[in-house]
Structure to design on (302 residues):
């Protein structure tokens, strides 16, 4: 985020870390210079912006009010810059989005590649984050949009587009189960399995399916990382339980097979394209949003 005042830059960072020394290290600016700028503004306002505590600095009520306005000014300045770039015919521009790890590779990079081909002057910032961090950064104005798992519209954030992603058994194309149209978990559990671990949603689904079927999965490996699980499936040591989102690229390339589960009590997850309700997006961000919308539509209507 670009700030248009040296004081605002110092003030926001000190508020974030709660220490002039730490802010000095982050910004690579002398602590005395940061302190001098803050003291000057406190003198002009006639009010302290920070409480000086033995453990560090804490915002006063006046400081909290100023921080809120400072963030708002930065957002407005970012938007102004984007609009000025729009007037230049999008020779330059910037868009930032957050994405959950499962969709951070092929899904996102293919869209960025197409954007770059059409608009080489637009820089795109990709941030791989968890749901909570994506939501927070959208609200704070650090991201134009985010792709989240099981999102809900709120006072601040709206779900712009979404698609559902059910779980199923994933195998190599040469596996004995690969030709099945549907499968019960109990039929798959006897085969060697690579079991997902928390925080992956599939880990909770494995537990639910084991309890419901009275069947224990034949575990040969476990992992909390989707790409490792897919690599192990490809190596031939076992099968796994994943969602269509996790193996979207592999299904399209026919390097892995996805077999839907017959159990109907498992609800599919939802992947949502989310934006800030009150934010006016720049032209560059709108172009990126439109491309994500088109990709979501393709998934809904294969």
């Amino acid at each position: 985020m670009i700030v248009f005042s040296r004081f605002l830059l110092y003030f926001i960072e000190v508020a974030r870390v709660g220490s002039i020394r730490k802010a000095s290290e982050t910004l690579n600016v002398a602590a005395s210079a940061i302190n001098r700028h803050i003291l000057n503004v406190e003198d002009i306002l006639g009010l302290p912006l920070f409480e000086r505590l033995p453990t560090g600095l804490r915002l006063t009520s006046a400081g909290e009010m100023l921080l809120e306005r400072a963030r708002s000014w930065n957002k407005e300045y970012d938007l102004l810059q984007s609009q000025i770039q729009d007037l230049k015919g999008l020779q330059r521009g910037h868009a930032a989005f957050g994405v959950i790890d499962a969709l951070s590779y092929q899904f996102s990079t293919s869209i960025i590649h197409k954007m770059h081909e059409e608009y080489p002057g637009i820089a795109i910032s990709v941030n791989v984050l968890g749901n909570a961090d994506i939501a927070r950064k959208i609200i704070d104005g650090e991201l134009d949009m985010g792709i989240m798992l099981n999102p809900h519209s709120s006072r601040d954030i709206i779900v712009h587009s979404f698609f559902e992603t059910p779980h199923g058994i994933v195998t190599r194309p040469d596996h004995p189960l690969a030709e099945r149209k549907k499968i019960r978990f109990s039929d798959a559990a006897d085969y060697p399995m690579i079991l997902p671990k928390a925080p992956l949603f599939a880990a909770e689904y494995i537990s639910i399916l084991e309890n419901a079927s009275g069947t224990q999965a034949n575990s040969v490996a476990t992992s909390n990382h989707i790409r490792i699980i897919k690599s192990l499936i490809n190596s031939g040591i076992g099968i796994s339980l994943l969602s269509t989102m996790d193996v979207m690229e592999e299904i399209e390339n026919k390097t892995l097979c996805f077999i839907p589960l017959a159990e109907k009590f498992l609800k599919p997850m939802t992947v949502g394209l989310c934006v800030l309700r009150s934010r006016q997006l720049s032209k560059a961000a709108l172009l990126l949003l439109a491309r994500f919308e088109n990709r979501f539509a393709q998934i809904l209507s294969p």
Notes: The mean pLDDT is 88. The longest helix spans residues 61-87. Residues 6-72 form a domain with the Arc Repressor Mutant, subunit A fold (CATH 1.10.10.10). The radius of gyration is 24 Å.
